[in-house]
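Q: D-aminoacyl-tRNA deacylase, please. Structure only.
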Amino acid sequence: MEIDRKREHMKFVIQRVSHAKVDADHKTVGSIDRGFLVLIGVGQNDTRETADKLIKKMVGLRIFDDENGKTNLALKDVDGSLLLVSQFTLYADCRKGNRPSFINAGKPDLAEELYEYIISECRKKVPKVETGIFGAEMEVTLANDGPFTIILDSEDS
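A: Structure for D-aminoacyl-tRNA deacylase:
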């Protein structure tokens, strides 16, 4: 199967949450209160520079309500936290048949390296950053506040 060059770009699915947690092997491995649950998909040609662009955009998003009820505050303004979860299934290609193809997802070594890089860079900018476990079977529980969900795609940034 040929690689679709238009589809191999980093994706962040950001959900504004009042709380969220991720469990692996029936044990909580990451948990936050107010902040963002971020599902991270890495494409085949993504780089640290790609990640830097999306991290900057994500931490600057002004999607929390101010005192007037306007979405005008960023994560830092509300002492928000991050819960970062790697999710290659963001690259599901369902155009042919009923079984998704994941050929456009980044290879595991690259994806894990960039996921760890994203975690380390976010920890420089946000006081509390929790994570899932790369490659593990996980259960994510969240209360989407709003609901409010934003998709950042490096192709669009």
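A: Brief note, in case it's useful. The chain has one domain: 5-153.
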